[in-house]
Backbone:
């Protein structure tokens, strides 16, 4: 397992990470997914969750949505709401939890939104631990 | 012939104008650095997004069922033009260049008797367009009271456009903005955002057939509106960098012109002063001689 592949994490403001990594775990819309070198070409989008990058060191990011493309051994993660977990302080997390809870208590949500928000709450609570 | 006093006043007035333009140049230079950095950092996101979508559109099996945002309505009747300009003036040809390009396009559309709808972003573009094309303008957006434009602001416009499209208000959407090349040259550009598919996509790398999760349509439904917001955000960033660059060059020129003017006026002033002294001397001497 000494194979590497290229990872690019890009937000509209800047390139967050561009590196060679061993594997990445992404919160894909239909469940968590581990990307290893020579994965088949893939396009998918993300639900709120935590992305784990295993490269020279382990890095975690929290994101709310995003698009992922894997081709030619290059993984591209596009997300406008991605933050490194170190920057998420307890205060920020509890504020986000509050917000999503109040959103969830409104009744006019459709199933898709409910699904997304509950995952957001879920992964936020994991950060808190 | 202006009197000495008039000349002195002119010189001091030009000098204070020069001070203002110099200060504006400095401010623009400082802002430019930030804006340029943001524009350059933002480029990969929109480029990659576009790349993914072009790949997706190649992979679509049944074009007739593909989302309308990607392949278009099949009609070409109504064009929506989003003209993005600055909220402030005094930046050289920046706003005029965008408007000129947009006007050419508008005239073409009107000539071929298609419908035209315009959204203006930024007040300067609105000022230039409202006289000739006022009746086509359906929405005016400006960010006068905002210091920095965030992705959320772009998203608001993007959603508005998607909503209009879903209501079948238009068939094609084009945005106009200035692409930032370097400090002295900004290129006005028009970019088609709806339909997102480009006609000249080459079909050669079919090898990259993707696995989709969930289904293609669902991904596209999610991705296409996001792409529009992204393209608009990119246009914002490019525009703000271009605006500052353009202002910097314009103000630099203005400062230099003011300097030239001061030099010329000073020479004039000195000459007239000397002429006045000579005249006085002649008067005194000829007066003394006649005694």
Residues:
């Amino acid at each position: 397992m000494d194979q590497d592949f290229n990872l690019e994490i890009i937000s509209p403001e800047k390139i967050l990470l561009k590196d060679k990594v061993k594997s990445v775990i992404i919160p894909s819309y239909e469940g968590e997914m581990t990307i290893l070198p020579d994965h088949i070409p893939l396009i998918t989008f993300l639900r709120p969750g935590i992305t784990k990058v295993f490269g020279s060191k382990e890095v975690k990011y929290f994101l709310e949505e995003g698009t992922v493309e894997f081709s030619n051994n290059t993984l591209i993660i596009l997300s406008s709401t991605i933050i490194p977990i170190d920057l998420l302080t307890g205060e920020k997390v509890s504020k986000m939890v509050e917000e999503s809870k109040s959103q969830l208590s409104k009744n006019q949500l459709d199933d898709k939104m409910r699904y997304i928000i509950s995952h957001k709450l879920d992964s936020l609570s994991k950060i808190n631990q | 012939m202006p009197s000495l006093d008039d000349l002195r006043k002119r010189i001091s007035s030009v000098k204070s104008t020069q001070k203002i333009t110099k200060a504006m140049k400095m401010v623009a230079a400082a802002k430019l650095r930030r804006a340029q950095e943001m524009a350059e950092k933002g480029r990969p996101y929109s480029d990659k997004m576009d790349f993914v979508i072009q790949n997706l559109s190649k992979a679509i099996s049944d074009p007739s069922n593909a989302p309308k945002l990607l392949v278009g309505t099949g009609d070409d009747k109504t064009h929506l033009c989003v003209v993005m300009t600055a909220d402030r003036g005094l930046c050289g040809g920046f706003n005029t260049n965008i408007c000129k390009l947009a006007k050419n396009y508008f005239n073409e559309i009107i000539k071929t008797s298609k419908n035209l709808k315009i959204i203006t972003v930024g007040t300067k573009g609105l000022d230039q367009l409202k006289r000739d094309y006022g009746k086509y303008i359906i929405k005016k957006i400006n960010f006068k009271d905002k210091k920095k434009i965030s992705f959320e602001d772009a998203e608001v416009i993007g959603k508005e456009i998607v909503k209009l499209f879903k209501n079948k208000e238009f068939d094609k959407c084009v945005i106009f903005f200035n692409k930032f090349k370097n400090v002295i040259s900004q290129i006005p550009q028009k970019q088609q955002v709806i339909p997102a598919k480009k006609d000249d996509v080459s079909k050669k790398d079919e090898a990259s057939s993707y696995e989709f999760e969930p289904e293609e349509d669902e991904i596209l439904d999610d991705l296409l509106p996001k792409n529009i917001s992204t393209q608009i955000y990119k246009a914002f960033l490019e525009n703000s960098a271009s605006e500052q660059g353009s202002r910097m060059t314009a103000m630099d020129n203005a400062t230099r012109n003011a300097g030239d003017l001061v030099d010329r006026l000073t020479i004039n002033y000195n000459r007239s002063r000397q002429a006045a002294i000579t005249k006085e001397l002649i008067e005194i001497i000829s007066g003394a001689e006649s005694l």
